[in-house]
Each structure stands twice: as C-alpha cells, then as structure tokens.
C-alpha cells in the first residue's frame, strides 16, 4: 500500500513483453474445485465453460476450502525470502525476483499456466540526506524520486505555506514566496508530486512536507514532472519549522535514479467465459525498509491460497484471472503498465477487478472500498458496478460476523488503473498508518487512537505483525467474493 493520499505514478517505460513462460502442461493439477461434470474440463482459449454449467455452490465451497493456516505458510516463505535477501522484497532486488518465482511455482503446481509479463521501471536510491535549520540538524525523510540537490546542498530561507486543508495544492498558496526559498507545506489533499511541482513553478528551490503525525513519512513524488528536491519531517519537527519562517536552512539530497526491468505474475483459469473475466490482484513487492509481510505479503498470500484451492479448472461461468503486481510501492507501476498494455477490446473483457492490499493489520479495521460513494467523502464512486462489488465484499465480511465500513478510492493501490479504464472495482483493506477511531475500536476491538498498522513501511512488518483473526476473516470474505463473481455477474453491467 503506497503512502500517498492520491495516485502518483512512477516514471515507467513499458516493455511490451506479454509472452508466457512455458506452460508446464505435463505437471499435475492441484486439487482445486473442479466439477466432476464432463462439461467442466479445460477448454482452451476459444470458449471455456458456459455460464449454465457454473456451480452455484462454488462461493461457499471455496470459502470452506481456503485455510488461514495454509496461507500462513506463504507468509513464512515470503519472510524467509526477505531474510535471505537483505531484509526486503522491494522491486529491483533479488528478494522481489525470488517472490515472483515462489508465486509462479506454486501456481504451476496447482495446474495454472503462468505468465510473467515484464515492464521497465525507474528505481530510486538515496546515498545521503540532511536538513539543517539555523545550523541545527532536523531529522528528515527524502521523498521518493526526488531530484538531488547540488553536491553541497542548497541554502535558502524557509517559506511557510499556509497550513490549511490545501497547503501547497494551489498556486495561490505560494504567493509572496521569495524566489529560491525552501517551501514548507503540510501533508494532505493532493499528491506530493503536485505540491513539489507547484512549489517549483512558483520559484521554490526545495520543499519540506510536514507529516500529520510524529512518524517518519515514506512517500514518493512519482513521475510528476517539474518537481524540486523534496524531503519530509514529522509533525513535531514541522511545528518547529513553522515557527521559524524566514530562517536560513540547508537541504542536501544525494539520490540516484536507475532504469530496471521487473515482472508481474498472471494466471487464469481454463474454464469459464474468457470474454467475461473476473480479475483479482495483490501487489507482491515490499518497501526497501522491510519484509512487507502485512504490506502486502498478506494480500499476496491470501490470493495465492484462494487460487490454489479454486484450481485451474473450476465450475465457473466466468474465467478468473489472478495477478500479483510489481512496483506498486513506487507508483502502481506493474498494474498500470499491465492495463495500458491491453487493447480496448481486452479491457472490456474484464468484468470487474478486486484488489487486496493489507488484509492482516495488527490493529485491524474491516474496510471495503466505497464503490457507491455512500460516505460522500473524497473521491467519487467507482465505475458502474463498483457498488455491487462493495456490497458483495461487505456481505462476505458479514458472513464471518464483521460489519465492514467503507473506505475511499484514494488511489493508493492497484485498483487505480482499472478504475481509470472504466472497469468496476473494489477490494478489502485492514488499514495502514491511519488511526482507529473509538467507534471502530468498540465495533471491532483493538486500540482507539493507534494506527491500524504501526509497522507500516518499517522493518518490523514481519509475520509477528499480522493479526491472524483479521487475516482469516478476510481470506474467507475474499473467497466468497471471487467465487460469487466467478459464477454470477448479476449487477455488473456489460461494457
């Protein structure tokens, strides 16, 4: 799950490489939920199983088949991969490549033909970062894909932008700023890249973003053009800066950008209508700071468990396509390039997309993306049919005794490019750095006033950070949702 409030894409150049790896057709299929009917065998790419042959009991049977214990074995494997590869599974690292091979291998053993389409991605590394104000060092965290400063840094007066709801999101916010100043803006409302871009257009030489709490900010500027060297500070440090408007500050950022090739993992059932595809995805990469076992080992492991138990040839009316995305943490890159690689006709074949990012947070919320915008907050509703996706997933959590709340389509995960393509979407989420309200704690348990995941984007995001109860409940709800749409697209409009 990316740590920005709205979607910001990392700069990418897609490699149009969509050829599959070897099908491994001679491997035995996993158990799955294949029907004993002669009509449910693999049919190749020309037809698949008819909707009439779909088994209406599939959703319940799939939910009964999936196991939290079995999914935990995937979490253990991902943690082991991170431990063997410098502690993380970030894109562009051996840890991510090993994660791809693990998921692809498990799918092949379950009888799937697996593709690993590749894409080029711009990666980012930091050699040095320093911020001093009036000669005093201030702890800071560089924003991903920030340009470097000159080797000696830049020294300029601070200019405190009005600390309101649109801080740094409008050109007018920078009125009166001396040219070459370092702008201090509050986090929120618009993407970090937009704040940096507008500051640069107004003449700022650098930007400092003040976080809304006292945790370090892990965030990215993405591919926004015209940005300036940008870093961030905690709320308490930011309050000090706000009180020193006009003070001389020095910002030094030594950063490097590189072009690398990465991969997604994609597998589709051989049964069901291939012209009406139910797609479910989870990002597979972690941040460089840690193993990423909740973010997003939890979604990846849960989805892999469901794919294995569903099997490659289930009695379904629609084909089911599973995807594990790369480079989500630096801008939804893998999912975006995948959607962009599809023809308009192939996009229309995707009936709906379900996204699962962080489904085991230790102070868990039970959140479903607000497809109908019933909360009337933030982004509007998703494409037509997203309301149905939300209801199905909410009902799935209800079946395990949990009353879910809506959460905004704020563009922070891989549903973003599907929504932009007009594809109905939804998903489940147990929360990241936001804090649980007293009302939520009363309804769901846990600690009010504390983050849903205090280890979000940090070294402590390990297996011990995953709440097993939340993980198990979400796996069941995911299975019910995927199974429901596999047998029936009632309420999902044709496009």
Automatic annotation (TrEMBL):
Single GO MF annotation: carboxypeptidase activity
Peptidase M28 domain boundaries: 264-479
CDD domains: M28_SGAP_like
Identification of the protein by name: Zn-dependent M28 family amino/carboxypeptidase
InterPro entries tied to this protein: M28_fam, M28_SGAP-like, PA_dom_sf, PA_domain, Peptidase_M28, TAT_signal
Region of interest (Disordered), residue spans: 28-55
Family: Belongs to the peptidase M28 family. M28A subfamily.
Annotated organism of origin: Pseudonocardia sediminis
Domain of life: Bacteria
